[in-house]
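User: Hi! I have a protein structure encoded as tokens and I'd like to know what sequence might fold into it. I'm fairly new to this, so please keep things simple.
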């Protein structure tokens, strides 16, 4: 079976499976695509696998778990944070309560975030993407201690850039 045949045969089934678990249709479509991208990476090694359907469902479960892990990581670091690429209402700090329609506060956060030194902003961005400290360290070629201290400094810088009156 070719990868194209596998995709034609199973794409809709995998997409429906993911949509039953992830209630955002657009995100479910993205996760379905990610499933097939991951499958393509190893397909040629497993072309003769006796149960490619089960293999695809296993990949889709892993993709969904990774997605949920990233969301939980964001919530742990920045509750109420939503991906700023697809949404305009992202939240950058757990101690802030911001209404979704509070554009003024949101602009202030974005301005403070964007005014940070790129070294520190980069670490926060990677944390918001759901990467662990070890993943960030590996990606940037720095130690985990450096990631930890940069993250700490970045959060302090963000609070300083926002000003003392922001939390009032």
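Assistant: Happy to help. Inverse folding works backwards from shape to sequence: for each of the 168 positions I chose a residue that suits the local structure. Here it is:
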């Amino acid at each position: 079976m070719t990868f194209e045949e596998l995709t034609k045969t199973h794409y809709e089934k995998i997409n429906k499976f993911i949509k039953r678990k992830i209630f955002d249709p657009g995100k479910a479509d993205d996760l379905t695509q990610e499933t097939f991208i991951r499958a393509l990476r190893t397909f040629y090694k497993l072309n003769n696998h006796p149960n490619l359907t089960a293999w695809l469902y296993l990949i889709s479960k892993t993709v969904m778990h990774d997605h949920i892990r990233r969301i939980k990581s964001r919530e742990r670091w920045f509750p109420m944070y939503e991906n700023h690429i697809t949404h305009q209402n992202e939240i950058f700090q757990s101690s802030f309560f911001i209404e979704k329609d509070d554009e003024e506060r949101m602009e202030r956060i974005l301005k403070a975030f964007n005014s940070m030194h790129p070294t520190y902003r980069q670490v926060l961005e990677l944390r918001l993407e759901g990467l662990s400290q070890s993943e960030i360290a590996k990606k940037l070629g720095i130690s985990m201690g450096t990631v930890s201290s940069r993250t700490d400094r970045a959060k302090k810088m963000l609070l300083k850039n926002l000003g003392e009156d922001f939390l009032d």
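A useful reference point when you look it over: The chain has a mean pLDDT of 76. Feel free to ask if any position seems puzzling.
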